[in-house]
Fold this protein.
Amino acid sequence: MSVEPRVGIAGVGWSGFTPTTANVSYKELMFEAARAAYLEAGVNPRTDVDSFVCASEDFEEGTSIFDEYLPDQLGAVQRPVHTVASDGLFALATGVMLIRSEIASVVAVEAHSKASNVVSHGRVARFALDPVLNRPLGVPALAVAGLEMQRYLHASGHTAVDCEDVANRNRAHAASNRRASHAEAPAGADDPLWEPLTVGQTADSVDGCVVIVLAAEDRAGADPVFVQGVGWNQDAPSLESRDWDRAAATARAAEQAYARAGVTPGDIDAAEVDDTYAYKQLQHLDALGLPDLDPARVNRSGGALGEGYLHEGNGLARALACIEQLRAGEASTAVAQSWRGVPSSSAAVAVLTRGGA
Amino acid sequence: MARRVAVIGAGMTKFVRRAQETGKELSWIAGRAALDNAGISLADVDAVCAGTAPDAFDGVHRKGDYLADGSGAWGKPYIRTFVGGGTGVFVPIQAWYTIASGMADVVLVLAEEKMSSCQPHPQGAFLTIFDNVIERPLGPNLLWIFALEMQRYMQAYGLDKRDIATVAVKNKRNAADHPSALLGQADITVEDVLASEVLAHPVQRLDVSPISDGAVALVMASEEAAAKLTDSPVWVQGVGWNLDSTYWTNRDLAYPEYVENAARMAYDMAGVTEPRKQIHVAEPYDPFDYKELHHLEGLQLFDKGKAPEAAAAGVTARDGDLPVCPSGGLLGVGNPIAAAGLMKIAELFWQLRGEAGARQVPGTPERGVAQAWGDLMQVGTVVVMGTDGGPSTTATRQGTPPIGPRATPLTDEAFRSAAGAVDEPLDLTYEWDTGEAMGAFLEGMRDGRVVATTCAQCERTLVPPRVFCERCFRPTDGWTEVEAVGTVETFSICHVRWDMVALDPPEIPAVIRLDGASSGGFLHKLDEVAPDDVSIGMAVEAVWKPVEERTGSILDIAYFRPRHGGEDR
Amino acid sequence: MSRAIHGDLPVRFRYTPGVANTSFFEALRDRGVLLGSKCEACSVTSVPARMFCERCFAELSPGVECGPGGSVESFTIGHVGIDGEALDEPVAVALVRLDHADSVLMHRLLGIESPAVGMRVTARLRPQAERSASILDIEGFERE
């Protein structure tokens, strides 16, 4: 298995990360983030970027074949562009594959959220449930989170208080993140949603866009952050047969990412993991082999709970936070992990390093 | 160093109008057939690459997740890619880079579509492919864009509808030899096609491929893994893909540049310098008969405007100089969008191994090209496959030929009365921020003005306005207005609604090229003109609604009508 | 200042249950039994019955009657609906592992004051005349 060429981060850009972005369309949101990323990477997308990969889902946008609406604002017209129908970290992994297959040297990866434009997220999430076996019950997808949290607490020995601590700590971290919108706990934080899940343990949506420019090592600039390894995995999609005790897909994705990166959990000194719900952070840390990682080094950005939940962009938001921490010298080997929210059982993991790891 | 990648097995379901099977079950049928054909088990698969077109067909959000178990992805790395109709030929490209990059040695590739779930007609899913601000209020249906493109293609090259119709005949006859085919007809004629109902002029019913349910699967492997599993791998020699601008009303639809770009990318990689000589069999995407020809030209296999006469002369017949769609294509086998594209790759696999049975093209074809298209007349996906010196067709292989394809077709009556069927509306609603550019445009509409932006570097005036110039990727420099007058770039006479209910009088959708905007134009409708009097190049002017009826919408222009005293182009 | 445009996706769906679910639903409606399928290679029994094993891709057929008793693997009490609105009455939902099955069913809990992981429950079916080949032919699960 080839590990050459190494893949570096040449540039990053972001826009939004606020509950609403009423003055801009999704195209304008993407244009802003893309310009910033290309500027930092020192590339002209019309000539220097070989391939573009975006992550989106039609029903989140309200447009069928949303892929159509990507190229113009990314500088990708009449270029190789494609969409992965998944979280942005899967698009990042795809960018790595394009570079390692040598069909591209520079790849732009994008994901965004215009969550404020969706009238009812509950209805969108519910449409992901099996239409014949699950939807007729008439319960929201959030019920799956309640079931999952209850089972996880039962199987792991963690408590609801542990989950409260996660939420409080992430919000405290978010206070130093200029992107964060939710450093304060929401009103009615203790109100139950689907027990034992509470309002305060559930991340609120934000709009925003993240663009990351990946490059083969010789194009990535001096002392870049490297994507040392990536992994992704799928557990049973059906509620009936998935592993309810643990984040199985995260565990397998982590195994692959660590193996490709040539690291073990002991080498990880920063983690940005999915915390769409507070219990998920604990569950994902377990799956990543990082149950005892110093909490000060977990979701330093505040995670989705503190920064805001970027929907399909969440994985890239986590990667962005890792990149910033690595560039600031706050870590040398970071892991970014994403999930997709209920009722999904897929996950992606990326190991990011800097400084000749 | 990137590794070589081969296709080592293929399988598919029958393509049917309405399948009893769920999308998961359809995927499994195809996936299982492909594994059996390759002589491997699911445990041998390292990763799964899936492709399926809009979620609005099957009616499941995150359709990729939903299909994962039927796609063999339990506990495996799994990604769904999605480029509209181009997906079926993109997904083997996805598998190619998954293997070439070293991430996997053996990949199961799946493409599935269950369009029948979408009611009252699967075409309804296409209502929402159009721009949410400037197009959807007009109620455009899918037939419009094909008709507009077909019209422009025919007019640009002076094409004869008879020549185009020969493609439908060729493919539907070819499909009679395909065991999965929904619409194979051994005795169809050009007269049948030309006599069929006009849906949206110039598109007639038999120009169009049928909506279907189905799934197709491949097994692809690295060179090392393939060597252990087969003596006759079919190599992926080149891959290419390309996406054109969303602003399709600013583009010339006569020629698919994005298909040419994708083809060149694939040909360069494959070392193909003279495609017409070096490609021995072609499977371009044929959702409509004219599209096969349009795409053949984009693929550099015929000169611009020359594919129709070649088709009429028999060049593209199975026993012709360059066999095209020997499978029967979408027109004949059926069009479950993503699966249909992958069906073309499977066809090349079987053709190049001499396993296509009654569909086998004569001689020993060594190299083929498959192509799919999609999005808003925008994306080209191309794969070049070859035997790299000839297969060993007589050597024994571990696998078995594909078993007879399965799917359980439901009659209309059985579909309506199926036990356990669940009916549900798609009750999702949105409030889309129109943003700076389109917000200004809509305000302009209310005032009876067409607002545009300008790019000084490219010397372009942009309608619909945007804050970026997509050509030079600079922010646009300023705002301006243009008069609501222009010429008809292309048009159609549409006799059916999106749910196939008859429209009388017909609608006349048109792309209006605005006089004052070099890259400016939008979709609208014509009125105050008889259908027979409409022509490409005709001068038109907007008829605005009375100011008190305007709401800040593209519909503040009620329609365009012929402009007397205006200059036709 | 930008304005917002309203939009929707104006289609509806008719989902056929599929080959395997049809067997399950017909057996539920006509005989009041819960049919699963067993993969012999994986030793995994799934209910509702499946056409194929997701782990090894073997073809399966329905044939294992599961339940009606089972144990609660997890449960949750819901206070908000699909649009986030407060529910008039809390709703109790559980994952139930039916006897003889390895998979779970998500369904309602009926009249259970204090649900607990591990408790025994049993399926309450609607009267046969009211069953329509639906997952709702099971009214829910009550204390065994």
Notes: The first helix of chain A runs from residue 26 to 41. Residues 226-353 of chain A form a domain with the Peroxisomal Thiolase; Chain A, domain 1 fold (CATH 3.40.47.10).
